[in-house]
Write a structure and sequence with these properties.
heterodimer; A: alpha/beta; Rossmann fold; six-stranded mixed sheet; four-stranded antiparallel sheet; 10 strands; 26% strand; globular; B: mainly alpha; 2 domains; 23 helices
Chain lengths: 240, 470
């Protein structure tokens, strides 16, 4: 489904991402972990053609993303609050995204109705602009908007951050369902190792732009990840 | 950076103006009222200056409360923070500026032979007066922030004062003037304005202290949604979602909203010129006024495309949209505004049918040529706009593009019109503008295609620029 080849991104001589090869099959729930500056958001931005790759490219469903726009109809994402339109209400925002993705109001309504629990009564019908919502509620709206229009690829950057515990658990269920039942390829990044191991079938660890681990999730994965990041902490302590 | 340079330029301009006033006032007064004491006359005008000052401050000066938000969580006494905020407000440009006029004026008076002690006392009284209006303004603002019609308190205060004076109920001008003269002649009386200043300060202190909590006044206001029925946009087909978005953009953000009111200025623009016979003689002027008044919205809205959407540009670029639709929505909005402004400007026919014809030609030119020019210019925009920032004196998003685009937009049609009008005649000049406009309309699809390509080419640069904090 998503095929990354010889991809690198360099800013003023500093390479922030360098992935020789990475293939994500259709319907996989894929987790990206790494410390700040590891290149997670850079990778997602390249996937969405928001920045230009220095070398190599990403092919999504046989479309080279930086050469054609044909990946847009089947891809959706929520990276950060710059994906929200502050002066719209959540409903208006959902309808707007729906219109862009060929969904009428009824389609959007029936989709958002499924997320009543997830919204916890704080999003729909509140007559508030998105810019006036709390960070957590903004995130909820952004994530659900990314599910509008039956996308085949969904990219979520740090979806668990800023959410309350109940919502985090609900979100995990939503992501699992998307991959397992609907065959959607879900790409998630997170700093929370527990959440990623719960949700993702496969976890890739990025470090300074390089893939250092590529794990099939099993009961021992969390321990392995924790050991990996803990060793980093020990090393840096020694360095000091 | 460009914004700062512009602001510095404005500040310098005002400083020079005030300095000129300070040094020149004495001479002007002596010339205008040769047989009266210029010092007395000047004091008579102080009242109007206070009124004007209050109005200016109300619209432009805000108490710097937000800057102390971080201080609230530190172990600093609340009263210290309040004193700091109020003290900081004294250092405002609005308090500094009058000094550039008051001090030179005082020097001139002393050099002219007025008693030094008297003038120095007067100088201090004036400085205290400046500070009083500084704190009085914050009191008025505190009241207005609670009202539905926020301009009401200032208009009431200023209106009542002005009315009392105008109808002679309470001759404020001479009252203020006499008071100032009284202080100048009797320095002990300066205690009165000091007492007023202290009272204003104390009142501000009281208001602010009760308000300075993270949850109340420091929290930005949550606006109620105003939803309008925009279903009429559906007739524009696939552009409709973007038109709805653009209309909401304009109506729901401070800066764009104030721009919508520019439509009104656009309509009335001709009234600055046409009532004077001098301008009516110059037919080429009507082409310029026509371009300007029918294109008022086009210019003000168009020059910041696509920076209006910079806050969510990443969304637009990764969503399933066609760039061409996005741009066409802006194009349609601008065309509608031109037509609307032309129709509203039809009454100018009162000043001569030629004006109407020139306006018509200008409107066609705006629709056919200027819309495309400004969209094309937009592809060079690299400065983001934060929509929720204040409207007045906001130059965010202004760069070289905004200055340069004015040349093809206004200068070129004006020169062409003027030249042909002079060489051939009015009819030929009008025909030229109309033909150029029609050519633009005929090639609309082609032009849009190349403009769209221009935007696509600078996509990464724009995304990058719009995600920077400038």
């Amino acid at each position: 489904m998503i095929h990354t080849k010889y991809l690198s991104k360099t800013y003023n001589g500093t390479t922030v991402l360098n992935i020789e090869e990475l293939t994500i099959p259709k319907g996989q729930s894929f987790g990206l972990v790494g410390n700040n500056g590891a290149g997670k958001t850079t990778y997602f931005s390249l996937l969405l053609d928001l920045i230009k790759p220095t070398t190599g490219n990403i092919t999504s469903n046989d479309v080279v993303v930086d050469q054609s726009e044909d990946w847009k109809p089947f891809t959706s994402s929520f990276i950060d609050e710059s994906f929200l339109i502050g002066y719209l209400t959540p409903e208006e925002y959902f309808y707007f995204i729906g219109e862009l993705r060929g969904q009428n109001k009824a389609d959007v309504d029936s989709l958002t109705a499924q997320f009543e629990d997830f919204f916890n009564g704080e999003i729909i019908g509140k007559k508030k602009y998105l810019r006036d919502l709390s960070k957590g509620n903004q995130k909820k709206a952004g994530i659900v908007a990314a599910l509008i229009g039956n996308p085949e690829v969904i990219i979520l950057d740090e979806p668990f951050a800023n959410l309350d515990p109940t919502t985090q658990i609900r979100l995990k269920q939503i992501i699992k369902d998307l991959a397992e039942k609907q065959g959607v390829t879900v790409l998630v990044s997170s700093h929370d190792l527990m959440h990623v191991t719960d949700v993702c079938e496969r976890i890739v660890v990025l470090e300074k732009g390089n893939v250092v681990k590529d794990l099939e999730t099993n009961p021992a994965t969390l321990k392995e990840l924790e050991a990996h990041f803990a060793s980093g902490a020990v090393v840096s302590q020694e360095e000091e | 950076m460009a914004i700062n340079i512009l602001m510095v330029f404005f500040a310098l301009y005002f400083i020079v103006m005030f300095l000129g006033l300070g040094f020149g006032l004495l001479l002007i007064l002596k010339k205008t009222f040769p047989d009266q004491d210029p010092f007395v006359i000047a004091n008579g005008y102080v009242f109007f200056w206070i009124i004007g000052d209050l109005m200016m401050r109300f619209f432009l000066q805000k108490l710097p409360v937000m800057s102390v938000k971080p201080l609230l969580t530190l172990p600093i006494k609340r009263s210290t923070v309040v004193n700091y905020v109020l003290g900081k407000s004294v250092a405002s440009f609005f308090n500094l500026l009058p000094l550039f006029a008051i001090i030179p004026f005082s020097i001139m008076l002393i050099m002219d032979g007025y008693a030094t002690s008297m003038i120095v006392t007067w100088l201090f009284a004036m400085i205290i007066l400046v500070l009083i209006s500084n704190f009085l303004n914050f009191i008025i603002e505190a009241f207005s922030s609670e009202k539905e019609l926020s301009f009401l308190p200032i208009i009431t205060v200023v209106g009542v004062l002005f009315g009392l004076n105008y109808f002679g109920v309470l001759p404020m001008t001479s009252l203020v003037g006499d008071a100032l003269l009284g202080i100048a002649n009797n320095p002990i009386l300066i205690l009165v304005p000091i007492a007023i200043l202290a009272a204003c300060y104390a009142y501000n202190f009281k208001i602010l202290r009760s308000k300075l909590f993270l949850d109340s006044s420091l929290k930005s206001k949550v606006a109620e949604v105003n939803a309008a029925d925009l279903s009429w946009t559906e007739r524009f087909g696939d552009v409709a979602p973007f038109m709805k978005l653009d209309l909401k953009l304009i109506w729901r953000n401070k800066r764009t909203k104030s721009m919508a009111f520019l439509l009104l200025i656009g309509v009335l623009y001709g009234l600055f010129f046409y009532p004077q016979p001098m301008y009516r003689e110059m037919t080429f002027m009507s082409a310029f006024i026509g371009i300007f008044s029918t294109g008022f919205f086009l210019i003000n809205f168009g020059q910041f495309i696509p920076a209006w959407d910079s806050g969510y540009y990443k969304l637009l670029m990764s969503q399933n949209i066609k760039y061409e639709q996005y741009l066409r929505s802006k194009f349609i909005l601008m065309v509608i505004s031109v037509v609307l402004l032309f129709v509203l400007g039809i009454p100018y026919v009162y000043f001569g049918y030629k004006i109407l014809i020139a306006h018509f030609a200008a409107a066609i030119y705006n629709i056919g040529v200027n819309t495309h020019v400004i969209l094309w210019g937009g592809s060079f925009n690299r400065k983001k706009i934060e929509l929720d920032k204040k409207a007045a004196f906001n130059y965010q998003g202004t760069g070289a593009v905004q200055w340069l685009i004015g040349i093809p937009l206004m200068l070129v049609p004006m020169v062409m019109f003027g030249l042909v009008n002079w060489l051939v005649g009015f009819a030929a000049a009008v025909a030229l503008l109309i033909v150029l406009g029609l050519v633009g309309i005929v090639f609309h699809k082609k032009l849009m295609k190349s403009i769209t390509q221009k935007y696509l080419d600078s996509k990464y640069k724009m995304i990058n620029a719009f995600s920077q904090d400038n």
